[in-house]
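From: lab user (bench 3)
To: helpdesk
Subject: output format question, protein + nicotinamide-adenine-dinucleotide

Hello, I'm new to running complex predictions and I'm not sure whether the block I got back is the full result or only part of it. Here's what I submitted:
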Amino acid sequence: MQPFVYNALPARVIFGRGTLSQVGPEIQGLGCNKALVLTTPGQTKEGEALKTDLGVLAVGLYSNATMHTPTNVTEEALLVAQRLGADCVVALGGGSTIGLGKAIALRTDLPQIVIPTSYAGSEATTIIGQTENGLKTTQKTMKVLPEVIIYDVDLTLTLPTQMTITSGINAMAHAVEALYSKDSNPITDMLAEQGITRIANALPILFKDPGNNEARSDALFGAWVCASCLGTVSIALHHKLCHTLGGTFNLPHSETHTVLLPHTIAYNTPFATVAMTKAAHSLGAPSAAQGVFDLAKNLGAPYSLKQLGMKEEDLARAADIAMENPYPNPAPLEREKLLSLLKDAYEGKRPA
Ligand code: NAD
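Helpdesk reply: Thanks, we reran it on our side. This is the complete output you should expect:
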């Protein structure tokens, strides 16, 4: 076996059904009693219900979390937290809500309890991405790692079917990049392979039967496992491209991951053959790139950047931005090849 370095992150994870009832005890376990509940506008009702359940342990609800963590939204939420004297945040939602909790923690050190309701995986990472003046920048700091993660499978039953598919592929992207990361190691390989398999098996079931508890449970567990990979290794071209398209062109997060993943895998496969063979095997497909493309397309997910509203004339600028401050990547980054990758993704071509 090759020598390796593995850096595990501390995590307190509560996983199950009906675990939302654990939020109150967990707030108290942190020595807190003035929680600010965070949600997106779309999950206000769930946030209000949680606030009511928490009774005197919750001081308020801020329900304007926004995708890609714009700093103006963070500043508004911070004012609310300060005005209410919040001593912790409880983020109930997908990556946007968890991102807001992290952005608040970055600036205040308030502890976070996060209740993920999508498969994006932000809860298990020290990564915070923020968008200001149309540019999304990311940093890694332990300050943003949530203290407690509560996974309640019941809360994922309402995740719309298309978002279930794209968010599941978003989780897979973390595992794929972990397999060929410069920090890859046998532990994250095991997690990545397990995560890809759980999600690949769960998504076709959820496409037909979104209320299937067993498949929901597998998908959420797979999402956590994939997120744990993301939390411990360096990310590469795929995430860089998604941040570029999300931050600068405001494309939706999980859909962008879904469209780009087959193409970034195809770009990297010649330089990461062992890793992408593992990914293919975990998917149960002969080729990882085609396996992800077929899985997404067959389950009705978007498969072209054109479908996401990307403009063809912006592809060149996207390639330029992706070349700036590149992340370490198995395949060397060449602007013309990147542009051709983006064109294939724009057209929705099945990778060769
Ligand atoms: P999201 O959080 O924006 O959710 C999309 C929509 O789905 C929202 O309206 C949300 O309220 C709704 N939703 C979520 N769960 C639901 C449920 N169970 N039922 C009904 N509606 C539900 O999208 P996302 O894809 O989860 O997260 C994307 C954001 O997360 C991006 O900003 C991305 O950069 C960030 N992210 C960060 C990291 C990290 O490590 N820092 C990792 C992954 C994603």
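A quick orientation on your result: The first helix runs from residue 23 to 29. Let us know if anything else is unclear.
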